[in-house]
Design goal:
The chain is α+β, with helices and mostly antiparallel strands. The chain starts with a helix and ends in a 25-residue tail after the last strand.
Length: 257
């Protein structure tokens, strides 16, 4: 004799599974906007209202929102988050209490890395910061935003931040409507200027999505060590005196209501 409770439970499970399949089939594909990164530029600059002895490292990002069949000219993308990550080789001077450079500096970094487990993250210094733009208008031309590493850090790590302070690797990510718009699209194609290794001669070069995931893993494991040291444009001293292009307004979540 069949157990009526068991029969009812089986029927209910089948109904739930069927509903889930129908729901998945009816869910429309996500509409991904086209945010083009036109250029990423690195240089060191004298910062207003900061110690004049030091120049800060500036990363300037030129970008725009292009129209698509889903995003017509004149419409807006609301609450778009931009995240910049920079990865440098670690210096002995960043470990504190040492001025060692060259081969001796490498030995100290390798020793510290071994003590930390010998991971790639322990051999690099990674910086990360994010901002959220209130709204970006489609087909509204080039926008710019900049991030800065303080001059004291640039001076401390000048062995690896020489000249324009180019990082070993950088990557840019956007987030819109819960979707990540990253270095590679859904087909595995590299988005221009979203990721690069401008100062990684003779080392790990990012060509494919798997390469990128490896480098991002190093950064993810290390950025907590430098929290607050990559500073968005709006938060640096004297930002209003810095001459850059058209900057979108940035949301300020610290404002109380």
């Amino acid at each position: 004799m069949k157990n009526p409770l068991k029969t009812a439970m089986v029927a209910l499970a089948a109904l739930v599974a069927s509903a889930a399949i129908v729901s998945a089939q009816e869910e429309p594909p996500a509409k991904v906007p086209t945010i083009t990164v036109q250029k990423v530029d690195f240089k060191t600059v004298q910062m207003p209202n900061a110690d004049p002895s030091y120049k800060w490292a500036q990363t300037m990002i030129d970008f725009k929102v292009d129209p698509t069949s889903d995003f017509a000219p004149g419409t807006f993308l609301n609450d778009v988050k931009m995240t910049l990550t920079l990865v440098y080789d670690k210096t002995a001077t960043s470990l504190g209490g040492t001025r060692a450079r060259g081969n001796r500096g490498k030995e100290e970094v390798n020793k510290a890395s071994t003590e930390a487990g010998g991971t790639e993250a322990s051999k690099h210094t990674s910086y990360r910061a994010s901002v959220s733009f209130n709204a970006l208008k489609v087909s509204d031309g080039k926008k710019q935003y900049a991030f800065y590493i303080p001059g004291e850090i640039v001076e401390r790590d000048k062995e690896k931040m020489v000249g324009t302070a180019k990082p070993k690797y950088y990557f840019i990510e956007f987030e819109y409507d819960g979707m990540e718009i990253g270095a590679f699209d859904a087909q595995g194609k590299k988005r221009p200027n979203y990721v690069d290794s401008p100062n990684a001669t003779g080392s790990y070069i990012i060509k494919q999505a798997a390469d990128f995931e490896t480098v991002r893993g190093w950064a993810d494991a290390g950025v907590s060590e430098t929290r607050g040291q990559l500073i968005p444009y709006h938060w640096v001293p004297g930002f209003g005196q810095l001459k850059i292009g058209v900057v979108p307004s940035v949301a300020r979540p610290e404002i109380q209501q």
